[in-house]
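Input structure tokens:
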């Protein structure tokens, strides 16, 4: 190991790895440090008993991921991205199946929901035209009211998947909704064939090919700042181990934005106005998940369940209800053997948005009891789609906001980093401290698999330009 690099990347989430790959490929000396014992951040898997492997965040992303992976990774990765054709909704207001693209949504809105064609076209065009550069202050709620006044069923169709995908609410800026929604609507929902572990193995191989040094189980405890500029990082596995110092002119943090500012650097190194703004940045919500592995050889009925199922018992869409501890909405991801060719096992992962506070501070006993309850209620609910599910079940366990915090270090176990206002703070870091950059989930456009990869690209370009000007 060297102890001096051009760039140190903290964190191997999709944004951190993508930035490291681009910078390594351009000939910079890059070190990537990951605190966890595996790479990938939230793009992760975990194994249980022989043959059981669960994907954590492989539920669906927009088609743009193919282009980004081809350009910034390699064709082997891009060629494994395939469409999920059967997206289902089942709730008290409607039960439908869709390919989740503009053409099919237009058909559904007109034929199933009885909306006038002009309103549908107007809505899609407006959603697509919303841009960062406009100063449009419209909220998502106002956008829906403009085109579908009083139609809470339509709001549910258009909003529920996006809220699930990134925690956005009706009070968020319409542009954040418009960009993400339009990304999905261009060609539907995609997944990575082979599973997240294969993706991360291919990515780490590419990083090594591009001479990026990658170290796991290496938590960065401090980002060092000298004379207003980044000087390096301190890594220390635990208190029994000696701290290690790595020097670099650039540190690109893929860790949680607030953690980067307040824990890794320290607020005393920033201007007062910056810290004042950084303190107002809200974290995004967290999640609970229930992971279910079916017995080997048992096949779930694909026609009945589809690939992704947005299921809810709530009478209407409500962002608050989607986060409430009394769960009414679950998004089921069904993984058939085709997801991991060569296997004969089906998996179901049920995800629900959640507040960290609802899971924090519980006694060990209470926490375990709540997890068991979460699993049992999920199984009860799943019976509707997979009859006798308990009979076919091989393994069940749950993750909570505390789990996400533990494995990624995200403040409050946030699933999607910070809310939209985090983007401006993230982008301002290099003006505050020379050589300090951030890439990772900030706001809904810069999170999710595609958003994270693309933010990694943007940050890598900034770093490259910074080093050229040195
Ligand atoms: C339950 C769930 C389901 C999801 N489903 C989807 C989905 O279907 N589609 C989709 O597009 N997105 C989904 N997402 C979101 C998506 O996974 C994330 O937005 C994306 O993977 C985040 O990437 P990132 O680069 O921001 O970093 P992260 O994945 O957050 O990784 C940050 C990394 O930094 C490391 N780190 C932190 N601090 C330190 C430190 N001090 N030293 C060293 N390393 C450190 C962490 O260990 C971690 O590896 C889901 C998220 C969750 C939680």
């Amino acid at each position: 190991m060297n102890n001096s690099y051009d760039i140190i990347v903290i964190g191997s989430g999709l944004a951190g790895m993508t930035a490291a790959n681009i910078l390594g490929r351009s000939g910079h000396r890059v070190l990537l440090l990951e605190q966890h014992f595996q790479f990938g951040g939230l793009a992760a898997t975990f194994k249980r008993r022989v043959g059981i492997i669960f994907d954590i965040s492989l539920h669906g992303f927009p088609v743009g991921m193919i282009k980004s992976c081809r350009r910034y990774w390699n064709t082997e990765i891009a060629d494994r991205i395939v469409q999920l054709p059967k997206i289902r909704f089942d709730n008290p207001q409607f039960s439908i199946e869709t390919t989740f693209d503009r053409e099919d949504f237009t058909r559904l809105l007109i034929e199933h929901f009885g909306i006038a064609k002009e309103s549908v076209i107007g809505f899609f065009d407006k959603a697509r035209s919303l841009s960062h550069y406009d100063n449009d202050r419209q909220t998502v709620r106002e956008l829906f009211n403009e085109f579908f006044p009083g139609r809470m069923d339509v709001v549910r169709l258009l909003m529920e998947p996006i809220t699930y995908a990134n925690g956005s609410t009706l009070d968020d800026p319409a542009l954040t909704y418009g960009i993400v929604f339009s990304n999905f609507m261009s060609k539907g929902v995609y997944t990575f064939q082979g599973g997240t572990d294969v993706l991360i193995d291919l990515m780490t191989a590419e990083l090594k090919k591009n001479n990026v040094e990658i170290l796991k189980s290496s938590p960065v405890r401090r980002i060092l700042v000298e004379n207003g500029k980044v000087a390096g990082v301190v890594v220390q596995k635990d208190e029994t181990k000696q701290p290690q110092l790595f020097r670099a002119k650039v540190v690109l943090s893929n860790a949680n934005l607030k953690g980067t500012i307040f824990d890794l650097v320290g607020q005393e190194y920033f201007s007062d106005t910056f810290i004042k703004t950084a303190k107002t940045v809200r974290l995004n919500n967290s999640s609970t998940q229930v992971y279910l592995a079916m017995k080997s050889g048992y096949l779930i009925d694909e026609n009945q369940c589809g690939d992704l199922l947005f299921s809810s018992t709530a009478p209407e869409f409500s962002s608050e209800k989607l986060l409430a501890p009394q769960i009414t909405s679950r998004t089921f991801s069904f993984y058939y053997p085709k997801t991991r060719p060569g296997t004969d096992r089906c998996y179901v992962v049920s995800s629900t948005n959640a507040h960290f506070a609802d899971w924090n501070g519980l006694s060990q006993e209470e926490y375990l009891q709540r997890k068991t309850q979460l699993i049992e209620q999920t199984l009860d609910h799943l019976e509707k789609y997979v009859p006798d599910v308990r009979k076919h079940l091989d393994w069940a366990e749950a993750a909570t906001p505390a789990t996400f915090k533990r494995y990624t270090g995200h403040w409050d176990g946030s699933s999607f980093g910070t809310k939209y206002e985090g983007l401006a703070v993230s982008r301002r870091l290099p003006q505050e401290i020379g050589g300090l950059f951030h890439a990772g989930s900030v706001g809904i456009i810069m999170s999710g698999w595609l958003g994270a990869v693309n933010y990694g690209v943007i940050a890598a370009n900034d770093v490259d330009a910074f080093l050229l000007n040195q």
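Residues 286-354+360-399 form one domain. The chain has a mean pLDDT of 94.
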